[in-house]
Amino acid sequence: MIGIGGIAMAGVIGIVKSWPIIRQAVGLAGREFKGGAKSGEKPVRWQLDISMKHVVFFIALALIAVLVFFWLGVIHTLWQALVAWLVVTVIAFLFTTVAANAIAIVGSNPVSGMTLMTLIVASAIFVSIGLSGTSGIVASMVIGGVVCTALSMAGGFVTDLKIGYWLGTTPKKQETWKFLGTLVSAATVGGVIIVLNKVYGFTGDNALVAPQANAMAKVIEPLMMGGETPWILYMVGAILALILNWLGVPALAFCLGMFIPLSLNTPMLVGGAVSYFVSNSSKDKKVNDARRDRGTLISSGLIAGGALFGVFAAITRFAGFEYTTPGSEQLTQILGCVAYALLIIYLIRDSKRA
């Protein structure tokens, strides 16, 4: 619970730090919407974006769709749906700016903290307007999902634009094709989640580890079901996040580590140790930087490959194929440890080739 409070406060800290960026973005959008560039001034190709009028039109269209979805699919009372829609609109607007700024500057997207903050605010508002119990939990989770998706999309797209700028692409073309990518991902990710839930589940023994989702459930349930909410522990976590920020320690990563189970923290600790060793294995700073970047690239490939094969394994099991091992449980654990050690050795040796 202390970790949850710290994660939520990390989201607030992100908003406060990014407030000047938010004001600048709003001002720039307003000037573009009113008149665009000055007369006779043509933007260079790598600064050419979609017209702000088109952006505003699609935002309005998306907000109308969200309102209709809330009213007809989640909350069947119009004024409660309007409240939920207003919460999503305001929070998504503020938090997506923070997420985009965080990705652009430090390469880290504080999705967890801002999503938990959204759930706390939304749950408190819903309880005050009489929406509680199971329906309140569903409404809060849907709102959290909408905001979380918006944050992830904003952070990911800023990364695309940053890489595109380095390569010399036209932002307008990236922004246009991003709509297609969004539709494809939205159409596929729902099916993947359903398959994973059917095969492994997200609760109980041998379930998929979903620390952020479990944190969301622990935040919402006491608020919506009338249980005792550990506000003191939340406040302790919030104060801890403020102290960490004052000391210059990443509050989100620290507090998320307090909540993540040991089975996930341990390999992350090993990975951090490998990264430290690789990035300090030479007296030449340029060599160390190159090795760290190569290690990051290799690790990213391992993460993506592991995720894809995990989905493939879930689909095959969903289709009826069961993976079995001829040896005992102890033998499979030993083989897993050996494979893990070999993977670490490969990561170190390949990273040091830079």
Secondary structure layout:
Layout: H1 2-34, H2 52-74, H3 78-106, H4 111-128, H5 133-167, H6 171-199, H7 211-225, H8 231-247, H9 251-259, H10 262-278, H11 285-318, H12 329-351
Low-confidence stretches: none
* Whole-number mean pLDDT: 80
Q: Which sequence of SSEs, written as H and E, runs from N to C? A: HHHHHHHHHHHH
What best-fitting shape do the alpha-carbon axes yield? globular
Count of beta strands: 0
Largest sheet: none
**Oligomeric state as shown:** single chain
Rg from alpha-carbon coordinates: 23 Å
Helix/sheet category: mainly alpha
- Counting structural domains, the number is 2
Helical element count? 12
Q: Please state roughly what percent of the residues sit in beta strands, choosing from under 5%, 5-15%, 15-25%, 25-35%, 35-45% or over 45%.
A: under 5%
Distance separating the two termini: 42 Å
Features:
354 residues, mainly alpha, 2 domains, 12 helices, 80% helix, 0% strand, globular
Summed up:
This protein has 354 residues and is mainly α. 80% of the residues lie in helices and 0% in strands.
Outline the structure in words.
With 354 residues, the protein is an all-alpha fold. The protein folds into two domains: 2-251, no CATH class; 262-351, no CATH class. It has helices at 2-34, 52-74, 78-106, 111-128, 133-167, 171-199, 211-225, 231-247, 251-259, 262-278, 285-318, 329-351.
